[in-house]
Every structure is written in C-alpha cells, then in structure tokens.
Amino acid sequence: MIISTGIEELDKMIDGGLRTSFCYAIKGSAGSGKTVLSLFMTVGALKANIPVLFISTEVDIEKLMTYGQSFNMDLESYVNKGLLHFEKMSLKPLGTNLVQTDQFNLSAIIARTKDKMESIKAKMVIFDSISAFFADFKYEKTARSNFMDFIREITNEDAVLVLTAESQPTEEYSTIEEFLVDGVIKIRTELKNNQIIKRISIPKLRSAKPINFENRFIINRDGISILRSEQPPTSHIKEESSGIEKLDKLLGGGIPSGSVVLVEVDGETNYFPLFLTTLCYHLENDKGVIIHSNVHMYSSRIVEDFNKADFNIEPFLNKGNIVFIDKYNRSVTAVEAREMSQLMTTDDMISVTVELMEAFQKSKQKVVIYGDLTDDANILNESEFLRYFALQSFNIKEKRSIGYSFINFNAISREMLARLRTTADIIIRFSREDYTTYIECMKSSAGATFLPKVVRYKDKMPLIEIVD
Amino acid sequence: MSLKILFFTSPTCSWCPYLESILRQIIKGVDHLELEVIDVTKDITKAGEYEIVAIPTIVLPNNQRIIGSADEGFIREQMDFFLTLGS
To answer: Omega into B56 within 30° of 0, i.e. cis?
Structure first.
C-alpha cells in the first residue's frame, strides 16, 4: 500500500508515496520544519481516510493541536472521527525522578503503540521526535539498539513508520537512524542574503533512486510547496537554441532571448569546444555575432580551431555576420595594455557594441555576443569592471540579444564572482574533475537548473556532447 | 494505609523475574508496602496512565522511578533512599 504524503512533489521524490512496512526518517536541524512536515503528512493520509497514530515525545498534545490550527489543519475533527490519535511518550513524565541502569528494553512503547494502532486501525505511525526521546536516556546506546525492535514490530504491522530526528549542522556522517530506516527525507535550512531558505532532499531511499539534489521548499498556511528546479518550467518567453540540443532540453527549451549567460570555467578546462559549437550554430542560423576578443578569444585562433573541426568559417566572415572587437592590442606588454585600456575606455567598447547591435537588428538579425571576462576583470579596476558588465548586460537585455560571458572563476575574487552571478540570468559551470569535464547549470532565470552532467569532446561539429 | 510499589514488566523482559524476586524480598521486611506487578502487554491502560516506556520500570510512591534491572545491592540502595528520605 502506498500512502500519499499530501504533497504532490514530495510523493514524486519518494517514488510515489510512503510505502507500508517501510520506515522513513525526516532529518533536519532545529526549527527546520520536521514537525510541520510530519503534521502535513498526517493530514495527507487522513484526507485519504487512512487512520494515523501520532506519537509526540516533546510537544504536548494541546500544543500540537494549536500548532496544526495555525496551518489550517482541523486535527480535532479527525480525532473526534476516530481517525487520528495523539499519544505522548517520554521516558520522564512531568514531575518524576529517574534512576537508570542499562538493562532494559522498550517493550512498553511497543505494546502501547500496537494497542493504539489496533484501536484506530492506524496504517501510519508518526514518531516525533526520536532525538528528544533518546535525550532522556542515560544509556542512549541501549535505547537506540532496542529501538530497532520498535521499528521492526511497527513496520511488521503493515504500517508506515515516520520518525523525525534532529541533525546537527556540523554533522558529517550519517547517524544510526539513517542506517536503520528505508528512506531519509532531509531538510536543511540556510541563511542566504538574510533570507532563510529551506531545502529538501532524499539522501536514502530503498527500492528507488535517492534524490540528493536539494530542492527548495516553502511552508505556509496552506501547505508545503516544493520547487522542483529539475523540472523544465513552463515559460512564455521566446527561447533561442544554444546549438547544443541536450543543453536546450536541460534548460527547459533553450536560452530565453535577452539573457546574459555566465559560463564559469576553471582555468584548466578548455571551454573552446562549447564556445565554438554554439558559435557555429548561431552563424549557421544567420545571426549577427559580436566577439569581444582578448588573449584567449581572438580571431586567428577561432578561425584555426574551426579549420581543425573541418568547419569553413570564411563565408560567414565574408558576409560580415561575425565581427571582432579588439579590446586590447595583444602585441604589447601587460603594462602597456593597462595603459591602453585606459585609452580605450569601457564606454567606448559599449558604444561600439551597441552600434553594431543596432546595425544587425536593422537587417533583422538576432545578435549574439561572446566575450571572455577574465582579462577584463584583471586589467580593469573592480568598480569599472562591474559597471562594464552591468551596462553590457543591460544592453543585451534591452535589445533582446543573448550574451555569453566566459570567466575563469579561479582567477577572480569571490565577491566579484558573486556580483557577476547576480547580474547573470543563466549560470553555466564548465569544469573538470579527474579528467572528466562537467557541465552544470547553477542558475536559470526560467528556473531550469540542472546537476553536473558529463561532457564529451569530439573532433567534428558539434564539438561537445552532453552525456547523462 | 499501605503504599503501593508498581512494577511494570513484560513477557520479553529477561531481567524481570529476577528483579521481581528481589523486590518481593525487600518489601517482605517493610510494613505498609505492597507490590503490584503489571504486565504491560496485558494492562495497557495502566502502562499508558503511568506513561511507561521502558521495561522493567519500578514506580515508587514518591514519583521516583527506577528504569532497568540491577543487582540486589543497587535496588536496596535505591529503596533505602526512598524509605529513609521519605515519600
């Protein structure tokens, strides 16, 4: 029997829903929403007329009821209908003193739970939380090993057992709960730009593939919504192909026009195959291409590389569909280059680019701009560089063009990278690890990010292939 | 008036028969003390009422609880503590 959690996206993540005779653990730090999630699961089952036994070890029943009310849950009506039963279980009831030894078992909670399950015919048991439960035990190890019997006995009753457990923020290794249970639903909170962001993942799932990708989720009065960014979103924006079919698919259709694509590369990865493949596509589709050349991306190298791949770029050059703007004179020394860059201001660069964009648009051609920002970041001072990038991005957006900006993320400061990322609409990371190159989308204005995928290089066009 | 000592046990508890015999021996020598043995698998209401979680649990009238089995010395020490310092 599969029981829905009441949260559609979570059901998808755990292979359809909660399975009877399975034990699941909801792990998360304090205040991450474990109890709320377990209450929503409770209501999800109750809505399908599946009776639920809710065992609370830390929060009083009345408090849980009011807690539920604040999320629009009418738990009391289910209790009255006999579909829901709350049971408080803790080793140390209020006002008692304990003396403990390590020779005990947990047969009392097993008997009590089984009895309550039978009385309401419960198919789902929620145990919130085992961390608070174990905290009272002086001999926690004995308690934990005896708890295995509890898990076994309850799941043997053809019911789902959901445990909540507290995880420490610094926890590096899996705790015992993760070994024992069949599925782990992990909740993590992080503070980002003064905003609390909650993320959910399934690091362990027996019988199906776990989802280590952490999807964002929001808890509000009406329920829990999980934002699955792996799903291609529906978008009404016109999308342009990137020239790599698989990449388009992963991005949910392509790159929306008016996007600034930031391609982050580490210094060791050759991004040229990616660059040339997209460039080739755009040229073949009669688009106007502007290349801000620099020490990495310059005309003779591009022509040479195209020749190597047996692609004749000459017709496009002759047609004038590809224009190089030389930012710096490459025959000069670094010091001179710095001086020259002061002569040719970034504003000049931008105005030339805008003029070219307008010229292309007059002949009804879409414009694509390529540039390697690494040198700009090193030559220009920080504020000037960021201003340059922002203005450039603004022009790209306004003219509904597409801009590809490559940057070596190891060569610039973290702060700088963070600012570039804020401006960019799509962030693609192209990096290498152990001789394997990976492509990954870390941000997408349309919401379609994807996990690292292996990239294979080829001799002929298209020069790269994304492998699953 | 006699005071009741509750002893919660279950059929799966291997230490319980031994602990029960110790308890009976101790109580034998004390006036006004009575032992009530409760099998949690049979009397679940009582287990719920006293919120029993682990077995064996001894509930003394002063809200003191002994969880887990131990040797006679340990149990005697705990009982003496309760009997001398009072309920």
So the answer is: yes
A392-424 pLDDT, tens digit each:
999 998 888 999 999 999 888 888 899 899 889
Inter-chain touch A105–B13, beta carbons under 8 Å: yes
CATH code, domain carrying B20: 3.40.30.10
Its domain, for residue B38, covers 3-85
pLDDT in tens, A18-72: 998 899 999 988 888 888 899 999 999 999 999 999 999 988 888 888 988 888 8
Residue of B51, B71, B72 best to disrupt the A interface, most CBs of A under 10 A: B51
pTM of the model: 0.58
Does domain A239-467 correspond to CATH entry 3.40.50.300?
yes
Of residues A110, A15, A425, A419, the one with CA closest to residue A240: A425
Residue of B nearest to A138 (CA): B67
Distance (Å, whole) CA A440 – CA A429: 5
With CB atoms and an 8 Å threshold, state whether A90 touches B68: no
Query: B74–A101: do the CB atoms touch at under 8 Å?
Result: yes
Interface of A with B in 126-145 (CB under 8 A): 139, 143
Put simply, the answer to whether B67 touches A96 (Cβ < 8 Å) is no
Q: Does B40 touch chain A (CB under 8 A)?
A: yes
Q: Supply φ then ψ for residue A391, to 5 degrees.
A: -65, -45
DSSP code at position A237: S
Q: How many structural domains compose chain B? A: 1
Distance from A91 to chain B by nearest Cα, in Å?
Answer: 6
CATH 3.30.200.20 fits A2-227, yes or no: no
Helix extents (H) in chain B:
16-28, 44-49, 72-85
Option in B47, B65, B70 nearest A108 (CB): B47
Domain ranges for chain A: 2-227, 239-467
